[in-house]
Amino acid sequence: MRSFLFALILCIFVAGAAAAQSGSKEGELEALESQISKVENVVQDKARDDEALVKLRSDLETLSGSLIDFGVSLRPRLKEINARLEELGSPPNAGNPPEPELLANERKSLLQEKAQYNAFIGSAESLSIRVSEAINVISSLRRELFASTLFQRTDVSGALSGNTWGDFQRQAGVAWREVSSRLQFMFTFRKMPLLLAAGLSLLFGIGTYLGVRGAFGFMVEPRGKEIDWPYIAKLSMAFWSTIIPSLAVVASLAVAFGLFAYFGVFTNDTLNLTEALLISIASIFFIQRLAYALLSPRAPKRRLILVSDGTARILMALVVCLAVIHVVDYFFGRLFVTFSAPLNLSVLKSLFSSVAISAVLIMIALVKPFRGPETLAPRGWPRLVRLALILVALFIVGAVVTGYVGLARFTAAQVVVTGAILATMYIGVQSGQVLAAESVFPESFAGHQLKSLFSVSDTALDQLGLLLSFVIYAIVIVVGLPLILLQWGFNELDIQTWLYRILTDIRIGTISISLLGVLFGIFLFVVGFLVTRRFQRWLDGSVMARSRVDPGVRNSIRTIVGYAGVFLAAMIGISAAGFDLSSIALVAGALSLGIGFGLQNIVNNFVSGLILLAERPFKVGDWIVAGNTAGFVRKISVRATEIETFQHQTVILPNSELINNAVGNWTHRDHRGRVEIAVGAAYGVKPRKVYDLLLELAAKDPDVMKNPPPTVIFNGFGDSSLDFELRVHVPEILDSLAIATRLRFEIVDVFEKNGIAIPFPQRDVNLRMPDIEALADSIDAVKKRNRPRRKKTP
Questions:
Q1: Which of 349, 358, 351 is nearest to 400 (CA)?
Q2: 316 Cβ partners below 8 Å, 6+ apart?
Q3: Which residues pair with 86 in a beta bridge?
Q4: What is the tens place of the pLDDT at every residue in 141-183?
Q5: What is the C-alpha to C-alpha distance for residues 322 and 192, in angstroms, rounded to an integer?
Q6: Dihedral of the CA atoms 711, 716, 717, 722 (nearest 10)?
Q7: What is the DSSP string of 250-308?
Q8: Are 309 and 297 in contact (CB under 8 A)?
Q9: pLDDT tens digit string along 496-537?
């Protein structure tokens, strides 16, 4: 009865908890649906605002992720419900005894909860479809907005009428009065904050510029500017002499702008104009540095585009002119927006800047920068380059004439800005390609510095150059592509969303891969690997060495710790990368099947290596004999063991052979050993005297152990000598050959002093005379047959 009441109370408690959880899930789903409805209602109202549309799309993608999380949160409870329903089984059929009412009620409750959760999942999927449709609508609206802005025709005649000049004069007067009044207000009421902001901006701005230049100045202006630079040095100098000073200028201007904004000196309008002015200064400086890096009018030996000195100066002036035209147009555009200038002024501004950029492009196309190989006559650009420049210029002019001023201005801006970004990316890519070439980085300035400071080998420097080339490629892509996308009408939130998807959610079928997780997992594995190696060195050098642990034991422990640490680091890295270890278990099962077919030897050697490290039948430094191989153990790994023979030959033996076959270990327990020296004495010598002399000789040797004592064995009577064997024990078996050699010398000396001869083998030969006579007769017969015949005289 008590158990029944307890089960009833437990069922009621579980049902109540499930109902509460179901209610919370329903409220969460309703909240998500409400947020989606709000975004859908706002989309059409913001159809002409690109930034607002981008923000709404970001909100929808966040809601889409929340719906996915909502569906994932339902899975554990559904799994529990299904498992419990499987335990309860199906209801009894008709005619069978009825089941207890408690079980029937529990099954009914679980089925209702399962149906409700399935309804939640269906609603979440419907909301996900709504979110996807809303995102598609926003994308369509943004495309239409971009196309309408870019391909909208404008009445150019209105911008060229006489009223435009009057509008310009009035707008200039308004701007002057606004700016002067605000400046007067700042000097009157904000004088101290203005002076403080200006002083700190000057101080920190110059400090930031000098700091960046000082830290990386050797990459911008290295020594030896008059030498013949290799191509890698030219590329590297061009890239860094563009990037480093530009970053210094941008950092100093950003510091200045941040200080003015922090002290609240400017109003919003003045702050916008200041921001536009600083961006204009930074843009002109960047393009000027890029042109100087490519053309180097004052340093011909660093020039990447091989043109004459005069042509280099002309081209640089034209490129800087393009930048100035574009930046002035940008600044006046911000100015007109700030002071709400008439539309005809904006159209006229875009018209003039587009035509001016077209004219400069045609002048660049008409320049003849190269010289002939023989006559040194001026030669123009390659036909494809010249044709492309002229076509782009004519396209801009044609767009202006036909009234598509926005399209013309957009194209002109991309020629300047995108061209500068692509030129910088090209220098970076070329630097990476040259740096990845074999033996280039070791011969570079940086390679020589690393070699002299850290004694790095050429092979390591070559690998470092390859790694640096990949780093340069990554920097070029990560920085260059977003800048180009921003110029072509994409928003920062678009780029952030794409980057987030690339890093966190790459889908291949039903598999989702997170690059960020993979990179984090690799990072954790590298950290774990380095920590393991550091712990190995500490354990071996600081703990076991001080404890006087045997070198073989130290090697075994160090190896086991290394494998365990690498395995643990791999598991942590795999888990951090987002891979399910249960899936890895499936892969391991498939791998075990492959092992059963073709990898038995590898696994056999691996397991044998673990057995050798655990049982330690021999250790590093032992003298072993395995089959026909004898030598010292130098390394025990999980697959094979390295043995160095006495001829200094390294033999790699698979561990399975050392486990399955007999192995002799001369130094297994200790280094003691026995030396046997066989010696013979001539017949006629008293054996007892030889016995005593050998024992006395062995007892005097300092390297012969006294316990066990030396022994002499009288082996027997040989054909030529009385055979003895001297057996002595030595404390170090590795010295046995030297001790045996010394004992043999002493035996020879002692035998000579005592008149004992060491005989050599002797044989008795018996000759029978009849055999000799028969042999002589046969020899005479042969001689007679071979004797030459005499010729008869006529």
A1: 351
A2: 291, 292, 295, 297
A3: none
A4: 777 777 776 677 776 665 566 566 666 667 677 777 777 776 6
A5: 39
A6: -10
A7: HHHHHHHHHHHHHTT-S-HHHHHHHHHHHHHHHHHHHHHHHHHHHH-TT-GGG-SS---
A8: yes
A9: 667 766 666 666 555 566 777 777 788 888 888 888 888 888
